[in-house]
Write a structure and sequence with these properties.
Number of helices: 3
Shape: globular
Structural class: alpha+beta
Distance between the termini: 17 Å
Bound molecules: S-adenosylmethionine
Helix content: 25-40%
Order of helices and strands: HEHEH
């Protein structure tokens, strides 16, 4: 799919864990725009893999959808 190859297909990594799902989506050419994870140890590991810069939107049941980037 051309859209995926260009990296223009974006996703939010809800219930991110340590990012197994993200790895698969990124390997398919998709781009992650942020993640949501409540477990601090999972977040710590996730950041080891994917960096410190991205925003953790926290508890997905409390996210204001107007606050989310386009994906
Ligand atoms: C099965 S694991 C994640 C697996 C991960 N998506 C993957 O592909 O490897 C589920 C995760 O959801 C997180 N979680 C549970 N309730 C949540 C909530 N309300 N908001 C954000 N994360 C939540 C847990 O802390 C746990 O790390």
């Amino acid at each position: 799919m051309e859209q995926q190859k260009s990296g223009s297909l974006k996703f939010m990594d809800f219930c991110a864990g340590i990012g197994g799902g993200r790895l698969g989506l990124e390997n398919s050419g998709m781009r992650c725009v942020g993640f949501s994870e409540i477990d601090k140890n999972a977040e710590k590991t996730y950041r080891e893999f994917f960096g410190e810069e991205e925003r953790n939107y926290g508890d997905l049941t409390k996210i204001d959808t107007n606050d989310l980037p386009d994906f």
